Hints:
The chain has 441 residues and is α/β, with parallel strands linked by helices. The protein has helices at residues 2-8, 18-29, 34-52, 55-64, 68-79, 83-110, 118-121, 128-145, 153-161, 164-175, 179-206, 217-261, 293-304, 328-363, 365-373, 416-430; strands at 264-265, 268-276, 281-288, 312-320, 380-391, 399-409, 435-440. The strands form two sheets. A four-stranded mixed sheet has the order 1-2-3-4. A three-stranded mixed sheet has the order 5-6-7, covered by helices on one side.
Amino acid sequence: xxxxxxxxxxxxxxxxxxxxxxxxxxxxxxxxxxxxxxxxxxxxxxxxxxxxxxxxxxxxxxxxxxxxxxxxxxxxxxxxxxxxxxxxxxxxxxxxxxxxxxxxxxxxxxxxxxxxxxxxxxxxxxxxxxxxxxxxxxxxxxxxxxxxxxxxxxxxxxxxxxxxxxxxxxxxxxxxxxxxxxxxxxxxxxxxxxxxxxxxxxxxxxxxxxxxxxxxxxxxxxxxxxxxxxxxxxxxxxxxxxxxxxxxxxxxxxxxxxxxxxxxxxxxxxxxxxxxxxxxxxxxxxxxxxxxxxxxxxxxxxxxxxxxxxxxxxxxxxxxxxxxxxxxxxxxxxxxxxxxxxxxxxxxxxxxxxxxxxxxxxxxxxxxxxxxxxxxxxxxxxxxxxxxxxxxxxxxxxxxxxxxxxxxxxxxxxxxxxxxxxxxxxxxxxxxxxxxxxxxx
Length: 441
């Protein structure tokens, strides 16, 4: 059983021919022609993504970027003791880094948007977790290169290890003269580079890639010592930053439990809390009764129960009901003015409601007239009602309001006397003397 499990983890069956792997890595090292143009495009895309704070655009730049090539080349050349290939990889990698820094710095120097968004800030504080991501991402990458079935591993490694965004963030730091951004981002890029290369070294040696140079024991020892020093110099600061991150998260978690515990204090309610882990301060904003000295002291003592002995508590008062009596006169004046304004607006709303009601009634007046007159004159088939403005002579600029009623009747079914009766009925019915009646057969 254990033998079957061991066989499942072996890479020998899928291992690509060593010469093909060597040629692939050697080809990906070179930055000229196609690779150089792709790098230039990726730099611009990543810079725009950071500028726009667009995660999707940044991921696109990471997929396009060919920076993994020379990094894998450095690791592979160290594992196979191929010093000429190592020097070549370092030369092309250095050229790519300098070109990326220059391009991103120029972009951010001319960009009208200079705000540091979350995607930029995320690349300025590397930790030990970034080391682990780069290490295992690099292992996945070199295993994929060494395999016959490459799959889509390389794009995934490019996204996970994020080589391009830190370089562009470093360019942002240079363009805006914020060297804390530059050093933080460039250190993250260095971590990714070193540990992707280290992963390449480890996997290449584990797969028994043949040595490309004949070196004696002393030369091999010097190379291994150099690699060890580089690893230590890179990893020690990240451990420190990682420890700081863990401490910050622990402080935030303890602060959250503490603020939930002191959210209600004898008629006083916690409206808002502001936690600053850098300064180790917690600002508590309460509403309701004003906190007295004893209550503040009790809250301070309560912080010790959550391992927050060294925290500085800042108390602020939001809305306090104790101050209401002092502002009664001013509040009464404001209340009276508010009531007067409410009454005025209510009167306007009532008038508008009445007008709307009248308009709706007028709109249905034709139907009501037809309903009422139909029993008296069955020959009337339909009725239309409309309001209009009537004008007199051409030299008369006056405007007279009139209402128009149009009846649809059966041909020659109404006499002149009937029409006069209908008009008088309409004038009485609608209380409108200036009404015009027309008949349509």
